[in-house]
């Protein structure tokens, strides 16, 4: 079956049960949104013949992929919607609004370059982005919400090219795909991850990857997304061929590597699907093989855990919860109260900000209630932008679970 | 008994009948159309949805081919909103008869059907599912046509010119006096009342029922009732009409109809004009034939099957022929000449593609009889009036481009009111029918139409229940509205049962795979959520 047949078969599989729409975080807060079934399989029937290129409602989808996870018939709903956006992106920019949104898509999709600029003088960038007038200007010119929680920049993560070559000891090496957020906004997480893997006896290689492409895709920059994918795959190629795993700490990058890269037609695309791991998925495998040292120190702390949508979409469960559960003293509660609403860059958009906050409101409430009851003091989640949104919505400190594990190994305080 | 009088009574609310009603009305001739069911419930809604280019008849039936290409061109102009100009391909397969190919090319050339050969590579790129057994592909101006929309547009246009129609009004007998038909007796099926209509001329345009009508005056017309069965696939498999380039036969046309694909047909002579039951052997037979043009067709999901009756006219020369051999031409029978009775004319044979021409010829005959010399204008005057740009813009803004286009085409002049209703109350813009994108406001609007007497009428007007879910979700979603319009739960349940019985009749013969899965879900919905009883839902 080629991909066209496969998509056609999946359209046939849709039972129109609307479970996807019932679970869709956007549909929950916006009764006028026709939902994933409508935007995906229903409209796909029309798009197959009578294509409607300028369908602006396509942008209402936040690309969280909850629909695909929910569908009992395996219909690739988000994929259909993205395909339609891909077609629509070729027919945009007909008026000034279209041009403005196109430019915004261009910018929001290029978080990598923004990151590279931002980290030149992080404190200055952060201060500038805090100026109300600047945010107002961004809102008015680019429709980037003046209220959205744009993440701050920090000391960037250095790349670690492979100077000595792969050599023979391939089973003690990993390639780390840090993703833009870790690289430019939260370099600490990346540095801790590398120390942790080192502690476990692994050499970590960090090639100079470009952005994984997901933000580009979500902002309609499909050509550039594919280009980035092929570039990154080429950097990974020697390691993939040597059987070395690729580790991600960002769940959205992870999903892209696992789901989108295999569709790019290169040789390494055939390998990446089976060799990409979420950090905690990788660690749990080590644990199952008895290779994860359990000499943890007690960590007396309590956390609420938020499972990111793109982790769920990977279909690997919640390995971070399982690993953290091994640490003595750690009290952790799975909040699992739905999407945070930010969904990559969705919540940064002026017309989406209110919706995004509404989508996240269920989660915020669960976190506030939990922390007020004293169930936990802080939050943990793998996804960088979920973290930013949780802090924005609740004010509760939030960190990547690798920090907690590093504390247990006495790598950080 | 109610009595009315008019100049012309048209029997039959199919394409031909409504075409005649419009034509006469445009010539200023008062006419009343009587239909035993809803408009288009017979042959006019039970066909491929193909607007012929004439290519199919180019070898054997050059007159039919010529009429088709001429009407094809006219309808694409006057009824553009009912037509998707997909174009059609005639595909010549490895091993097919090369002599036929030559004859076909000559035939097309002679009657003026434009033919373009499509390079194979382009063909496989544009239609990836097309069999690789294809060796040559020819493009002709075939298109697809929405029969319901076409009929409704004709009726709405006729009404503007003073034409009237009555549905659910079954003609019981012809009113004969002194060797002259002076009207009809009919029963209004909803009230049970008898209606007597006095008229100068009665036009018998009853399609498969024509023989029954003629028999009321004791006349015999030879209508061969030829049943054709078709399959509806869950999605568009092709984007063009795909014909097999060979002597026309069974199972050799695929038509991409809106969001689905219609594939057929078969040909069996039957006795009853409403024998719409699809036999299971025909389904297996069709799927087998479909393999020739689309390999792996059995993997594609089928949502339903249906059958229609071709009312073919059997001329004296055709007497020995079975269905496919009979000409697709039409004929007008003046019963004065044939049977010595004045005031009755029958129109027999023909096809949907030529409905307008048939109507024109009959109307010419009627006008001549009545001494009216106004010329026919149906070939020039469009069926649809352009709606103001503000209404379009507002509709698109409120319910999205795709849904707005569909709605505007269905409602035309009445769209303004629906758009206003949604603007006042945006939630009325939510879809009741998601498959066909029909809003709550449109359903409410249709339910207020006096012509909508049942859920089935609603379906034909709005396409609610016509989509790929086959009424499973939309009908229960419409419950509150239906209950209000039909006055209570008991009647609503009755309507559900009728609608579902008809839908299930089409679904049960193709119940396997994904369709079976979905049907089980639908069954559970009606049994559990709506608390219908199993014995009732079996209809």
From TrEMBL, chain A:
Gene Ontology BP terms: anaerobic respiration
- Give all residue intervals belonging to the 4Fe-4S ferredoxin-type domain: 5-34, 49-81
This protein's UniProt keywords: 4Fe-4S, Iron, Iron-sulfur, Metal-binding, Repeat
Q: Which domain of life is it from?
A: Bacteria
Gene Ontology annotations for the cellular component aspect, listed alphabetically: glycerol-3-phosphate dehydrogenase (FAD) complex; membrane
InterPro entries hit by this protein: 4Fe4S_Fe-S-bd, 4Fe4S_Fe_S_CS, Cys_rich_dom, G3P_DH_GlpC_su, Helical_ferredxn
Q: Does the keyword Cytoplasm apply?
A: no
GO MF entries: 4 iron, 4 sulfur cluster binding; metal ion binding; oxidoreductase activity
Q: Which NCBIfam families match?
A: glycerol3P_GlpC (TIGR03379), PRK11168.1 (NF008369)
Name used for this protein in its record = Glycerol-3-phosphate dehydrogenase subunit C
The species this protein belongs to is Desulfosporosinus lacus DSM 15449
Automatic annotation (TrEMBL), chain B:
UniProt-listed PROSITE patterns: FAD_G3PDH_2
Q: Which family does it belong to?
A: Belongs to the FAD-dependent glycerol-3-phosphate dehydrogenase family.
The protein's name is glycerol-3-phosphate dehydrogenase
Question: GO MF terms on file?
Answer: flavin adenine dinucleotide binding; FMN binding; glycerol-3-phosphate dehydrogenase (quinone) activity
Keywords attached to this Swiss-Prot or TrEMBL record, sorted alphabetically, are: Cell membrane, FAD, Flavoprotein, Membrane, Oxidoreductase
Gene Ontology cellular component annotations, sorted alphabetically: glycerol-3-phosphate dehydrogenase (FAD) complex; plasma membrane
Query: InterPro entries, from UniProt?
Result: BFD-like_2Fe2S-bd_dom (IPR007419), BFD-like_2Fe2S-bd_dom_sf (IPR041854), FAD-dep_OxRdtase (IPR006076), FAD/NAD-bd_sf (IPR036188), G3P_DH_FAD-dep (IPR000447), G3P_DH_GlpA_su (IPR017752)
Q: Which residues form the FAD dependent oxidoreductase domain?
A: 8-355
- Cell location: Cell membrane
What is one Gene Ontology biological process annotated in the Swiss-Prot or TrEMBL record?
A: glycerol-3-phosphate metabolic process
Q: How does it assemble?
A: Composed of a catalytic GlpA/B dimer and of membrane bound GlpC.
What are its E.C. numbers? 1.1.5.3
Looking at the keywords, is Glycosyltransferase present? no
Q: Which cofactor does it need?
A: FMN; FAD
Q: Which reactions is this enzyme annotated as catalysing? A: a quinone + sn-glycerol 3-phosphate = dihydroxyacetone phosphate + a quinol
- Specify the protein's topology with respect to the membrane: Peripheral membrane protein
Q: Give the metabolic or biological pathway.
A: Polyol metabolism; glycerol degradation via glycerol kinase pathway; glycerone phosphate from sn-glycerol 3-phosphate (anaerobic route): step 1/1
Residues of the BFD-like [2Fe-2S]-binding domain: 432-483
Task: Return the broad EC class.
Answer: oxidoreductase
């Amino acid at each position: 079956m080629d991909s066209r047949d496969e998509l056609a078969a999946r359209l046939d599989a849709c039972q129109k049960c609307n479970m996807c729409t019932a679970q869709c975080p956007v549909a929950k807060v916006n009764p006028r949104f026709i939902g994933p079934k409508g935007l995906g399989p229903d409209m796909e029937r029309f798009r197959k013949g009578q294509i409607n290129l300028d369908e602006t409602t396509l942008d209402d989808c936040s690309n969280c992929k909850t629909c695909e996870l929910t569908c009992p018939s395996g219909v690739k709903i988000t994929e259909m919607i993205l395909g339609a956006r891909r077609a629509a992106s070729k027919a945009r920019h007909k008026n000034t609004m279209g041009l403005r949104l196109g430019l915004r898509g261009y910018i929001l999709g290029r978080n990598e370059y923004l990151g590279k600029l931002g980290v030149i003088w992080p404190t200055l960038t952060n201060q500038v982005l805090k100026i109300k007038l600047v945010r107002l200007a961004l809102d008015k010119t680019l429709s980037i919400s003046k209220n959205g929680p744009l993440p701050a920049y920090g000391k960037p993560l250095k790349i670690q090219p492979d100077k000595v070559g792969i050599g023979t000891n391939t089973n003690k090496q990993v390639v780390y795909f840090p993703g833009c957020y870790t690289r430019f906004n939260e370099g600490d997480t990346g540095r801790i991850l590398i120390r942790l893997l080192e502690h476990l006896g692994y050499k970590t290689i960090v090639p100079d990857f470009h952005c994984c492409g997901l933000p580009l895709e979500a902002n309609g920059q499909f050509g550039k997304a594919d280009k980035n994918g092929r570039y990154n795959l080429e950097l990974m190629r020697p390691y993939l061929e040597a059987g070395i795993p690729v580790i991600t700490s960002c769940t959205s990058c992870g999903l892209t590597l696992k789901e989108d890269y295999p569709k790019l037609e290169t040789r390494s695309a055939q390998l990446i699907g089976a060799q990409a791991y979420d950090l905690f998925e990788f660690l749990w495998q080590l644990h199952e093989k008895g290779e994860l040292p359990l000499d943890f120190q007690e960590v007396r702390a309590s956390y609420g855990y938020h499972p990111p949508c793109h982790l769920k979409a990977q279909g690997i469960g919640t390995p971070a919860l399982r690993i953290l559960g091994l640490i003595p003293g750690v009290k952790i509660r799975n909040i699992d109260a739905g999407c945070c609403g930010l969904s990559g860059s969705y919540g940064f958009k002026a017309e989406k900000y209110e919706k995004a906050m509404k989508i996240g409101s269920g989660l915020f409430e669960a976190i506030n209630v939990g922390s007020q009851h004293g169930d936990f003091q802080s939050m943990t989640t793998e996804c960088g932008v979920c973290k930013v949104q949780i802090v924005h919505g609740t004010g509760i400190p939030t960190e990547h679970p690798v920090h907690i594990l590093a504390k247990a190994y006495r790598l950080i305080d | 008994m109610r009595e009315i009088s008019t100049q012309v009574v048209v029997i039959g609310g199919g394409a031909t009948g409504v075409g005649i009603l419009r034509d006469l009305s445009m010539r200023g001739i008062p006419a009343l159309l009587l239909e035993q069911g809803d408009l288009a419930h017979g042959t006019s809604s039970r066909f491929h949805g193909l607007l012929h280019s004439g290519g199919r008849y180019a070898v054997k039936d050059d007159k039919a081919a010529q009429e088709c290409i001429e009407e094809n061109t006219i309808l694409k102009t006057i009824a553009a909103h009912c037509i998707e100009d997909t174009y059609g391909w005639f595909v010549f397969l490895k091993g097919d008869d090369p002599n036929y190919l030559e004859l076909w090319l000559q035939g097309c050339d002679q009657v003026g059907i434009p033919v373009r050969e499509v390079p194979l590579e382009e063909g496989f790129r544009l239609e990836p599912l097309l069999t690789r057994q294809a060796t040559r592909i020819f493009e002709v101006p075939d298109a697809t046509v929405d029969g319901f929309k076409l009929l409704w547009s004709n009726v709405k246009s006729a009404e503007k010119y003073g034409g009237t129609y009555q549905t659910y009004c079954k003609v019981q007998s012809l009113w004969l006096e002194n060797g002259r038909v002076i009207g009809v007796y009919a029963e209004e099926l909803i009230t049970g009342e008898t209606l007597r209509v006095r008229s100068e001329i009665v036009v018998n345009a009853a399609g498969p029922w024509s023989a029954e009508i003629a028999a009321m005056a004791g006349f015999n017309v030879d209508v061969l009732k030829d049943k054709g069965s078709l399959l509806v696939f869950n999605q568009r498999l092709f984007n063009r009409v795909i014909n097999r380039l060979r002597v026309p036969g069974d199972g050799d046309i695929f038509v991409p109809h809106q969001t689905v694909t219609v594939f057929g047909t078969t040909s069996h002579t039957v006795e009853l004009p409403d024998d719409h039951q699809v036999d299971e052997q025909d389904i297996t037979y069709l799927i087998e034939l479909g393999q020739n043009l689309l390999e792996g067709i059995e993997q594609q999901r089928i949502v339903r099957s249906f059958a229609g009756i071709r009312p073919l006219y059997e001329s004296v020369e055709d007497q020995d022929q079975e269905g496919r051999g009979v000409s697709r031409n039409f004929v007008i029978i003046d019963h004065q000449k044939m049977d010595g009775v004045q005031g009755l004319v029958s129109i027999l044979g023909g096809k949907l593609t030529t409905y307008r021409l048939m109507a024109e010829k009959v109307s010419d005959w009627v006008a001549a009889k009545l001494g009216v010399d106004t010329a026919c204008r149906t070939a020039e005057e469009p069926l649809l009036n352009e709606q103001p740009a503000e209404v379009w813009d507002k509709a698109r803004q409120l319910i999205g481009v795709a849904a707005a286009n569909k709605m505007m085409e269905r409602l035309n002049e009445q769209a303004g009111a629906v758009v206003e209703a949604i603007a006042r109350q945006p939630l009325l813009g939510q879809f009741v029918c998601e498959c066909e994108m029909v809003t709550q406001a449109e359903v409410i609007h249709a339910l207020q139409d006096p012509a909508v007497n049942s859920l089935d009428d609603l379906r034909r007007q709005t396409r609610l229940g016509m989509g790929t879910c086959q009424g499973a979700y939309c009908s229960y979603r419409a419950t509150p509205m239906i209950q209000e319009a039909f006055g209570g739960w008991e009647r609503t349940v009755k309507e559900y049962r009728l609608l579902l019985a008809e839908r299930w009749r089409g679904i049960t013969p193709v119940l396997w795979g994904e369709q079976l899965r979905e049907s089980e879900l639908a069954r559970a919905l009606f049994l559990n959520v709506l608390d219908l009883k199993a014995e009732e839902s079996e209809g």
